[in-house]
Amino acid sequence: MEKNMKENKMGTMPIDKLIISMSLPIMISMLVQALYNIVDSIFVAKISEDALTAVSMAFPIQNLMIAVGAGTAVGVNALLARSLGEKDYGRVNKIAENAVFLAFLSYLAFLVIGLFMVEPFYRSQTDIESIITYGKEYMVVVCCFSFGIFAQLMFERMLQATGKTLYTMFTQGIGAIINIILDPILIFGLLGMPKLGITGAAVATVIGQIAAGILAIIFNQLKNHEVRINMRGFRPSGQIIGMIYGIGVPSIVMQAIGSIMNYGMNVILISFSSTATAVFGVYFKLQSFVFMPTFGLNNGVIPIIAYNYGARNRSRVVKTIKHSIVYVMSILIIGLIIFQTIPGPLLKLFDASENMLGMGVPALRTISLSFILAGFCIACGSAFQALGKAVYSMVVSVARQLVVLLPAAYILAQFGNVNLVWWAFPIAELMSLAMTTFFMIKLNKKVISRIGGRDGKTDTCSY
User: 135 and 118 in contact (C-beta within 8 Å)?
Assistant: First the structure.
């Protein structure tokens, strides 16, 4: 087994082929996940616009859930890959066992949120009782049964850390497909099932997550021979947990800030109308179809960079970063073209009224102007995380979403024209580009340029 570990493809396979082999399965599965997000809202929109608004307002908590689960898993992913690159096989299993423990603690936190905090959360955004009722029905189920998503995220990242990304395509894909199939059945009471309405959408969501989580656990036990988990006699390791969160907390904060931004935008937009909030929610569903593949590519790139950083192979680190930037920006250029050319048909997928179309078309066209800038920042963010400088990504995210985007949106809203509010996104992305470029130059000087080659000498390649 040790021989196979030493021949891990992340240290030997040509970079382009490696990026594709590592990222493509994740990208496909996340595309399916994005499709589920869109289909879920399409069915909910058929209940009513208030139901769609309620699901849109749920995004901050759902995003926070993903932030905690995925952010912790990013730390596990990078730490596992680095330990494999350093040939420290004894630490690999300890990292994985502590990862399972952290996933369980994360679930307990959201169980509490589901039981006690959902109604206050909705009332802080709106006083429309139908939206609050829909929101409670949806979010209580999603939070109280969230153990599936935490298991799925953690065990998928363990597979990714060892290069077995193909299996994550199956876990995410099957989970999303189950969700898509169950959505109309449970929402509208098809095939003899009870008509559950918006609760049915939530039940379909958690069933899909639980199925994906179970499958991810099975794949780890049967196929991931480089990681062995034995919780018998387990004792948490403060040192390992600290190392996981040293990498993961900036990622958690970075994603959680998205929850704060989304919450703030909902409060700003609801002052115009509930339709404005629904438009914002629809945008986030649609943009996931563009951004999810880029995040999937980054998930595949992080262990490549981390492994070769641990193996002291600077040329492979640099080449991976450069090529990932090109790939990510290419995806987002395609997304920009789609949002600019067919915003109307995209909105009509959600039974958009004329009022919603009039508000949504300029929104999609304006916000999507930030896509290309965001592509560079996202790709560099994966390098920050893999090389132990995830705090750079956190600082950029805080500045973009809290220091610039929300204040800009609030100021623009004072002019009384909702179309002006959407310009806060490209404005914020310009600042993000400047900060990311600064940190990338600093990372090259302090870290990348000092990585030794595989023979212990310094490579001549620089970023």
Answer: yes
Vertex 285 angle, CA 407 and 273, to 5°: 55
Which class for 2: exposed (0-12), middle (13-18), buried (19 or more C-beta within 10 A)? exposed
281 pLDDT more than 50:
yes
User: Half-sphere exposure of residue 313, counting CA atoms within 13 Å on the CB side?
Assistant: 20
User: From the CB of residue 351, how many other CB atoms can be counted at a distance below 10 Å?
Assistant: 14
Q: Between the CA atoms of 432, 247, 285 and 58, what dihedral angle is there, to the nearest 10 degrees?
A: -110
Q: Which amino acid is at 384?
A: F
Q: Which tokens go with 47?
A: 């209940």
CB atoms under 10 Å from CB of 194, counted, come to 9
Count CB atoms within 10 A of the CB of residue 16: 12
Give the three-state DSSP class for 271.
coil
Q: Are 307 and 85 in contact (CB under 8 A)?
A: yes
CA distance 264 to 406: 7
Q: What are phi and psi of 156, to 5 degrees?
A: -65, -40
For the segment 292-341, what is each residue's pLDDT rounded down to a tens digit?
888 888 878 888 888 888 888 888 888 889 899 999 999 999 999 999 99
Cβ 55 vs Cβ 202: under 8 Å: no
Residues 179-192 as b/e (b if ≥16 CB within 10 A, e otherwise) read: bbebbbbbbbeeee
Q: What's the whole-number average pLDDT of the chain?
A: 86
* For range 351-378, the mean pLDDT: 91
Render pLDDT for 137-191 as a digit per residue (tens, 0 to 9).
Answer: 999 999 999 999 999 999 888 887 777 777 877 888 888 889 989 999 999 999 8
pLDDT(460) > 60: no
Question: Burial of 46 by CB count in 10 Å (0-12 exposed, 13-18 middle, 19+ buried)?
Answer: middle
Q: Which of 73-87, 250-264, 267-281 has the lowest mean pLDDT?
A: 73-87
Q: How many Cα atoms are found within 13 Å in the side-chain-facing hemisphere of 241?
A: 11
What is the C-alpha to C-alpha distance for residues 249 and 229, in angstroms, rounded to an integer? 23
> Do residues 161 and 80 make contact, with C-beta atoms less than 8 angstroms apart?
yes
- Residue 59 has a CB neighbour count (10 Å cut-off) of 19
Q: Quick one: average pLDDT of 23-47?
A: 81
